[in-house]
Amino acid sequence: MGSGYLVIFIHMLMVLFHFVFAVSSDDNSEFWLSTDDSPLNLQLQAWVGRTGKEWSAPGEFEKYASQNSRPVRLSAQMRYFFEVIHKQNDRGTDHVEVAWLHLDQDSSFMIIESKYISLYTDESALSMNDVSHIPQTAASHWHTPTKQRSAEADMLIEDRRDSFYKGYKFLQGVLPDCAYKPSYTIKDLPLLRYQGLQFVHLSYIYPNDYTRLTHMEMQTSCFYSESSYYLKMFGFSRYMRLDRPQERERLNRGMFYFCLFFPISKFKLLTLSVHLTQLFFIWCMLDFNFQGWKRIQDKAHFYNKNYEKKKEVKLDDVDNGHLRDYGDEYNYVQNRRRKLFSLRAQGREEDEVYNRAKRRRNTTEDERDYLWRRQGEFDNADDEDLTPAPVVDIQVNWNQTFQASPLDLQAQRSDWIDLQCNISGNLLLHSNDALDIVKTFMDKLNAKHHGRFKLVRVVNVVKRADRFEGSRYLLELELKDVNGQLLRLSQYIYALVHLGGLRNRDFSFKQSQPEVLLCNPVGFHWNPVATVHFVVPVKNQARWVQQLITDMEELFRKSRDANFNLIITDYSSTDMDVRKALQKSSLPSYQYVKLSGNFERSAGLQAGIDLITDDHSIVFLCDLHIQFPPSIIDTIRKHCVEGYMAFAPIVLRLDCGATPLEVNGFGLLGIYKSDLDKVGGMNTKDFTERWGGEDWELLDRILRAGLEVERIYLRNFFHHYHSKRGMWNRRMSTSPR
């Protein structure tokens, strides 16, 4: 593993502004910024991981919370020393880049252009043993106290959403009323059993809630839109390009990579004169080639010239037309790499060319000699000459720059539920979309109330996209009134799409730009005081039942929200007295019903539903082994709208060595009692003495009734791992093993 450093200055050409810096790399990196031009005043601003397992794609600046700095105030005409530390291994597309966002002007990060940076020291005239010019800074030493940072997962970091449930305020009359008629509801549409899942879409979230399971991702994971085969072959190289000398003069604006160099033990110096991916791949394969050279000498025999010509044609037939032109240096390395991958991919079913080459190949060792020849270089070489090809270190070019294509992975995601992808987390709403809606709403609000309110924080924005009629937004804002009092605003608005047009004098019709009109969807609002009933069927799960009761007590203690009710339907448990445990608890409200016979989830849930007399309260069909976030009661209320919408949050299933998201389960469901009664409640006829599938069948009926189902991932909403021993209808052996 190599290591490198970059020490440069920023030349500020603007007046005093606030910036947010971001770093992206494969693998780990750190961005340190000084308060002035002195290396002594460095402070850690942003970083990608610490353990060597964290990485991000080129241009991906929001994978980890640590990648973004806090706002930094920079002054014009000043130079600021900063340092970038980069650590990489021999896998992936090795890269590092630093970007910034001007808070008053920009809406997205832009990689810092070369015109704003300069080298701390030009090392082109220095010898390799000249090291006195390298500053020893806080970034260079692990024992520095300022470098010790929390290792908590991003999902566990405190978020304003987690406590945004105390107090509320609805502001009426801010927007004009309009009818709520989404285009995606499927009322009365005939569905096959379990087909309703295809009509449930994910909603978009702003700001980033970090529900994406980055610790489970690999470069070929489902989050990245490229095919896994393409990523194995080329990584993210198509997002990066080495500038040619003749092009550099024509570039007025560009996004450039920093020039790094890496000391390697095998060779004195490897530089970034070629593409990063090819550079490190060549180094790794050369190292492997030299180590195996003696074995090749013992076994080597060569193919005849006719076979070599045929093989050359086959390898050149591989279609690389979808790759961009990265220049002559890049194309040379790419041609060598293409042949290398052709042989390394032997036995892969994806490419018949490779399979045919494998069957005709005697040994892989014989072929490694062929890989590293340059075309025509060994045409007249003696077959007995096994001297390896010479390796030439290219001179470091300190003026070399790189370009990176913009990469917005979230914009490439679809709101369709991908049952094969259980790590991607919530869809993220772009800041342009969210902040434009918030700004328009605040303008309308202050026009109505004569500038009384000031926006303090955008806590949460949830968007349900509908490109035909208009998108629905849940705005959760923290406001301050003229008296300095903080207020919580949490309400739905509708952004209608108005497709207007203009008729010209020649009677032709010219389509104008779509106009977004904000309005208040009549009838579509959530009830902040609705009672939420948690219905849980149990049998012989004493410790988990006691844990559920304890968790509900803690939920009440933290939220002080008494408008919830715990309903336990008990199939005659013999390992505890559930009724007595409820009586001893400090729960504000609970109900208990005792059932007989074998455990049936559908029947148990329906028995609890039948105890609810208030049709305008919310039923939350629940399970044991669930850990709830403190805001769960209010969250259920906000995403359940009577007559319009049910709520199916996605739970994080904890397991040994993995924490996948439960993307295909709808067993945890919130819905108004009146709506549940209209669709017929639980199916107790088809699902007796078993569970599994009853949630999808209920989903079919909910959608056919014209309701929509809100589907989002929740922070800190976990399903605990548990043993199946003694569960439900599993019989216990009477004789020990």
From TrEMBL:
Question: One GO molecular-function annotation for this sequence?
Answer: acetylgalactosaminyltransferase activity
How the protein sits in the membrane?
A: Single-pass type II membrane protein
Q: Which domain of life is it from?
A: Eukaryota
Q: What is its EC number?
A: 2.4.1.-
Under Pfam families, the record lists:
CHGN (PF05679), Glyco_transf_7C (PF02709)
- Gene Ontology cellular component annotations, sorted alphabetically: Golgi cisterna membrane
The signal sequence is 1-22
SUPFAM superfamilies cross-referenced by the UniProt entry = Nucleotide-diphospho-sugar transferases
Q: Where in the cell is it found?
A: Golgi apparatus, Golgi stack membrane
Keywords, A to Z? Answer: Golgi apparatus, Membrane, Signal, Signal-anchor, Transferase, Transmembrane, Transmembrane helix
User: In which family does this protein belong, per the annotation?
Assistant: Belongs to the chondroitin N-acetylgalactosaminyltransferase family.
Name of the protein described by the UniProt record: Hexosyltransferase
What species is this protein from?
Amphilophus citrinellus
